[in-house]
Design goal:
Strand order of the largest sheet: 2-9-8-6-10
Distance between the termini: 28 Å
Number of strands: 11
Structural class: alpha+beta
Radius of gyration: 21 Å
Strand content: 15-25%
Helix content: 25-40%
Number of domains: 2
Order of helices and strands: HHHHHEHHEEHEHEHEEEEEE
Number of helices: 10
Largest sheet: 5 strands, mixed
Oligomer: single chain
C-alpha cells in the first residue's frame, strides 16, 4: 500500500476559500431577502450554520478516489468509552503502572492542554497518551514490531487472557511496518514535544471513519491528520479498556500500519485491526479496500 503525502494549503488558497464563503453569504442574503426575524434566526443558529459550512468544505475538499468504498454504519462506542472525558492524568498514571520505568510527558505542553490553551484539532475527539517507543528501546526494543508484540502481550495480560492474535508469529519487519506518512508525523510530534517519554496526542478512536475502507479513510484525512498503527491503538486500548468490551462495539482499523500477505499479488495491501467477538479482543488484519460496517480507522492529528 502506497503512502499518501499531503501539503498544507497555501495562504493564497485559504484567502480564496474565505472569499468564496463571504461571496456566497452575501448572495444568499440578497437572493433570500431575509426579514429581521429570519435574519435573527440565522444568527441564533450560527453554530449550526458554521458546522454545515465545515461539513461542506470537508466534502468538497475530499477527492473521489475510492469513494465507492464507504457503507452506512450504525456501530459506535457501545461499551462506555466517552470521547469528551479529559483524563490525561489518569492515562499517564496507567501507563506508568504498566511500564514502571517510563518517564514523563512534556509537562509544559501537558499544562497547556489541560488549561485549554491548546485545543483539540479538527477530526479528533480526545487527548490521549502514547509511549515514545523510539526513545525507550530498553522498554519497547529498537524495532517497531517488537514494541507492538509487547503491547499485545500486555493487552492479553490486562484482559486476563481474553485476547487472541490471528497473526501470532507473523508480525516481523517483513510482514508489518509503519506507513511512511505515519513515521513522518510521529517524528514531527516527537520533535514538537521535545522527545519526552510520553507523547500527548489528539486522536479519534475510529468513529469518524466508521464504514469506510482503510484507504478511503486515508484519502479523507486532513493535512495534519495521520493514521494510528497497532502500537498506538494497542496502547490506547490499555488506557481505555472500556473501548472494546462488546460484540457490537465499532472495531478498529490501524490505518497507520501496513501488513503484508505473502500469498497476495499486492504487497502490503492489508492493515492491522482490533476486533471483539467470542468474548475476546482479537488482533487481525484485513485488506485496505474493504468497506465494512463494523470497522473504522483510528487517527490522530498534529496539535495546532
Amino acid at each position: 500500500m502506497e503512502s499518501i503525502t499531503f501539503e498544507v494549503a497555501t495562504d493564497e488558497q485559504k484567502v480564496q476559500i474565505h472569499r468564496i464563503v463571504e461571496d456566497a453569504t452575501r448572495k444568499a442574503i440578497k437572493v433570500l431577502g431575509l426579514g429581521k426575524p429570519n435574519a435573527q434566526r440565522v444568527i441564533v443558529n450560527g453554530d449550526e450554520l458554521a458546522n454545515k459550512i465545515i461539513d461542506k468544505i470537508r466534502e468538497l475538499s475530499t477527492t473521489d478516489q475510492f469513494k465507492d468504498e464507504e457503507v452506512e454504519s450504525n456501530y459506535g462506542y457501545l461499551s462506555g468509552y466517552q470521547p469528551a472525558v479529559a483524563d490525561l492524568d489518569r492515562q499517564i498514571a496507567r501507563l506508568k503502572e504498566l511500564f514502571p520505568t517510563l518517564g514523563d510527558a512534556n509537562l509544559e505542553f501537558l499544562e497547556l492542554v489541560k488549561s485549554g490553551k491548546v485545543e483539540l484539532p479538527p477530526n479528533t475527539e480526545k487527548w490521549g497518551v502514547i509511549p515514545n517507543w523510539k526513545k525507550r528501546p530498553d522498554l519497547f526494543d529498537p524495532i517497531y514490531n517488537d514494541g507492538v508484540q509487547k503491547v499485545l502481550n500486555l493487552i492479553k495480560q490486562t484482559r486476563n487472557g481474553a485476547f487472541y492474535n490471528y497473526r501470532e508469529g507473523q508480525i516481523g519487519p517483513n510482514r508489518l511496518r509503519q506507513s511512511k506518512r505515519s513515521v513522518e508525523f510521529w517524528d514531527k510530534l516527537i520533535e514538537a514535544q521535545n522527545n519526552p517519554d510520553i507523547l500527548i496526542v489528539p486522536f479519534q478512536f475510529g468513529l469518524l471513519y466508521a464504514g469506510k475502507s482503510v484507504r478511503r479513510a486515508i484519502e479523507k484525512f486532513l493535512a495534519q491528520e495521520f493514521g494510528l498503527g497497532a502500537f498506538a491503538v494497542g496502547c490506547l486500548l490499555l488506557t481505555h479498556e472500556e473501548r472494546l468490551r462488546h460484540y457490537d462495539d465499532l472495531w478498529i482499523d490501524c490505518s497507520g500500519d501496513e501488513y503484508d500477505d505473502p500469498d497476495s499479488v499486492v504487497r502490503f495491501g492489508l492493515a492491522p485491526c482490533f476486533e471483539f467477538h467470542g468474548g475476546l479482543v482479537k488482533f487481525a488484519s484485513r485488506f485496505v479496500d474493504g468497506a465494512r460496517v463494523r470497522y473504522g480507522s483510528a487517527s490522530a492529528s498534529l496539535p495546532q
